[in-house]
């Protein structure tokens, strides 16, 4: 019986370390990004993961119409890496 407990205690300890060092911070980061993307409004400046800096012209259900240096693009909201109001 004590052998089983001695076996599981280090495993539980390692899981707790993984949770607090890897899983929890990643979940917080994803929640912050989802909130930021849901609050995008027209005329916000966005940065995409592809490195494009553009102004939001129109917002659709899951897409944005952005304009950068005279070129209009249609991108998914998930492609937004950062927002500058």
Average of pLDDT: 93
Roughly what fraction of the amino acids lie in strands? Answer: 25-35%
Instruction: Give the beta-strand count.
Output: 5
Question: What is the approximate shape?
Answer: rod-shaped
Distance between the termini: 60 Å
Number of helices: 1
CATH-scheme architecture of the largest domain: Roll
Poorly predicted residue ranges: none
Topology-level CATH name of the largest domain: SH3 type barrels
Order of helices and strands: HEEEEE
Give an account of the 3D structure.
By secondary structure, the protein is of the alpha+beta class. The chain folds into 2 domains: about 1-40; about 40-85, Roll (SH3 type barrels), CATH 2.30.30.100. It is built from 1 helix and 5 strands; from the N terminus they run αβββββ. The chain has one helix spanning about 1-40, and strands at about 45-50, 55-60, 65-70, 70-75, 80-85. Strands 4-3-2-1-5 form a 5-stranded antiparallel beta sheet, covered by helices on one side. The chain starts with a helix and ends with a strand.
Briefly summarize what is shown:
The chain is α+β, with helices and mostly antiparallel strands and about 80 residues long. The chain has one helix spanning about 1-40; strands spanning about 45-50, 55-60, 65-70, 70-75, 80-85.
